[in-house]
Amino acid sequence: MKYRQVHLDFHTSEKIPNIGEKFSKQQFQKALQLGFVDSITLFSKCHHGWAYHPSKANEIHPNLKFDLLGAQIAAAHEIGIKAPVYLSAGLDEKMARRHPEWLSRNKDESLVGTKNFCEPGYHVFCLNSPYLDYLLAQIKEVCENYDADGIFLDIVCVHSCYCQNCINSLIKEDKDPYDEVNILEFAEKTYANYTKRVRKSIDSVKPGLPVFHNGGHITRGRRDLAYMNTHLELESLPTGGWGYDHFPLSAAYARTLGIDFLGMTGKFHTTWGEFGGFKHPNAIRYEVALSAAYGARCSIGDQLHPSGEMDIATYKLIGAGYSELVEKEEWLLNSENIADIGVLSLEAVNNYYKNSLVEQKNKAGNTDAGCVRILLECNYLFNVIDISEDFNNYKVIILPDNIFVDKMLKGKLDVFTTNGGKLLATGKSGLYKDKEEFAINIGIKYLGENEFNPDYFKPNFNLPEFDNTSFVMYSKGQKIENISAKELGFRENPFFNRSTFDFCSHQHTPSSNKSAGVAMVRNNKTIYISWEVFEDYATSGSIILKEMVKYSLDELLENNKTLKTNLPAQGVVSLTKQKSKYINHLLYAVPVKRGSNIEVIEDIVPLYDVVVEVKVDKKIENVYLVPEMEYIDYVQEDNYVKYIVPKVENHQMVVLE
Fold this sequence. Notes:
Layout: E1 4-9, H1 25-34, E2 39-45, H2 68-78, E3 85-88, H3 93-98, H4 131-145, E4 151-154, H5 164-172, H6 180-203, E5 211-214, H7 223-226, E6 232-235, H8 246-254, E7 261-266, H9 281-293, E8 297-303, H10 312-328, E9 336-337, E10 341-344, H11 346-352, H12 357-377, E11 382-385, E12 396-399, H13 407-418, E13 422-426, E14 444-449, E15 455-459, E16 471-473, E17 478-482, E18 486-494, E19 511-522, E20 526-529, H14 533-539, H15 543-557, E21 563-565, E22 571-578, E23 581-588, E24 592-594, E25 598-600, E26 607-615, E27 623-626, E28 630-631, E29 634-637, E30 640-648, E31 650-656
Parallel strand pairs: 1-2, 1-8, 2-3, 3-4, 4-5, 6-7, 7-8, 10-11, 10-12, 12-13, 13-20
Antiparallel strand pairs: 9-22, 14-17, 15-16, 15-18, 18-19, 19-20, 21-26, 22-23, 23-31, 24-25, 26-30, 27-28, 27-31, 29-30
Helix pairs in contact: 1-2, 1-10, 4-6, 9-10, 11-12, 12-14, 14-15
C-alpha cells in the first residue's frame, strides 16, 4: 500500500460534450510527478452511471470517444505509479431512471438520498435487487480487461431499506417487514452478501486483489465490517463537514485493527464536487503530516475536469505536502504506535450491545470526540478501542460517560485492574447494564440522576489555573453515596431549576453554595467523575472539564507516563517504535473559522524550544531530528530521555536511537 495517493473523482454528466478530449499522457504524468504521487485511484464508473472505457457490462459515456481508463492506467504504470480503479456501487443515476424499482426506500416510500426525481441529486440503490448482478458484472469486467491495482467501491454501507424487494424477502422469511429490528437484521445480511459476492467476483479473475468498500465512516466496534476490506480508507475532509477532530478519532481506532489504513482528505476548500476550490498549501502540509503521525498512509481527493486535462495548480498544491512526505517515509514504514491510554469507544460499546440506531446516534459521537479532544490537548498517548481489544496493552482505560457493564465486560475490567491497570469512569459508566448498581469496585453507592441541571462542582484538589471555587456543570449529574473512597470533589445544587416562573439571570440559577454530596472520588485503581464530562466538553468546551480529566489521568498514571511535553493545546504529539528506534512526532497548526462553518489552516506559526521527556526501557545512544539528520543534546535519567526540540514548524520528527 502506497503512502502518497490521489483519489481522482470524475463524476461527469452526459450533458457535457467532448469528454477526455484534452487528455495527454505526458501532461497526466507531469502532474503526478509534480505532486510526488505514487498511487492514483481512477474511474471505471461514476455516480452518473457511465463507464470511462468500452464496456459490455455497462455503457461508455456517450461523449467519450476512447478508452480513457486504459490510457490513464498505462500512463501511471509507465512511471511506476499504482492505479486502483473506482466504481460507484451505491449510485448510478442512469439506471435509477431506467429501473426505479431497484432503488432503496425509506419507510414512507420516499427514496434514499435525493428524495424524489424533481430535484437534482443521486438516488441510492438497494443491493438486494437485480442491481447487484449488474454491478458485479462491471467489477468483474474491470478485473478482466485492466491491470487494476485494487478496487474502490463507493457509497455502500449497512442501511435500512423498505423497498419491495426487501419487504418481500422478509415476508418470505415469515418476518414482519415493518419491524425496525427485522429491517436492520436484513440490511446486515444484504451488505454481507454484497461484500462476499464482490470478493468472489474479483477472486475469480485476480485472487487477492485489494478492495475497499467506502461508506464514509469506519464504524467503531464493528470489526466484522472492517475486515470485509483488505485495507481501510478513512474519508475525513476537515473542510467538508468532518472537521479537524474527526481524523484523529477515526485513526486512533483504525490503528488497533491490525490492517493498513490511509487518511483521505481533499485539496478542496469545501468538499467533494467542488471545481476551482483550493486549500492553502499549509493545510495540505499539515493534513499529510497528521496522517503520518497517526500511522496512516495518505490520500488527497481531486476532481478531474471533463476535458481530461489535469490541473497543474492542484498537483503543485498536493506536492507541497507529498514532497515532504517522500523524505519522511523511511521513519514511517513498519512503525508501531505507543499508547498509555485506551478510550473504550461509546460507539463501539453501543454496537457490542446492539443498541438501536436512535440510541447510538444520541451521544456516542460527541462523547468519543470530546474524550479524544481532551487527550489531544493534554498531550496524552492513546488509542480508541473496542471490546475486542486486549485491555492489558494500556495503563489506563477510560470509560466515557455511558459505558454500561455486562458480565463479559466486567470480567475483562476485573482482570485488567488485577493486573495493575487503572480506570477513569464518568457519568453512568461503570453501572451494570441491567441494574442501577456499580459493577466496578469504586467504594460508592449509586443513588440516581441528580434532579438539578445544571449543577456545580467544587473540587477538593488544586487546579493549576484557578483558585478554588464552584464550577458550572452543564451535563446531567449522577448522585452517589461514598462508602470507602477518597473524596476529590463535591456537588453544589442551584437554588432551583430554571422554569417559567422560577428563573434567575440570563442562563441558569447560581449555586446555593451548599454541599449536595460527593461527586468525584477515587480508590487505588479507579477515579470516578459523576458528570458526562466528555459529551459536555464536545459541546461546551469548558476548561474545568479538561482540568478534571487531566488531574484524574495524571493521578492514575502517577510516574508511569510514557511522554511528557510542554507542546501547546493545539499541538499533536505521538510516539511510535520502529525496530531499535523511537520516533516522536510533534505537530502544530491552528485551524481558524472561515465563513459559516469551515475550519481552515493558513498560517503555520513555528514553536521554539519544545521540551519533551520520553520513558524508555533501554539506553539511548543518539537523539536526532529527521529528515534533517541533525543531532540534538539529550539527558537520560531514571529511564526518561529529556531533550529540547529547537523548532517545530508544522511537523517535526525526532528519533531516539
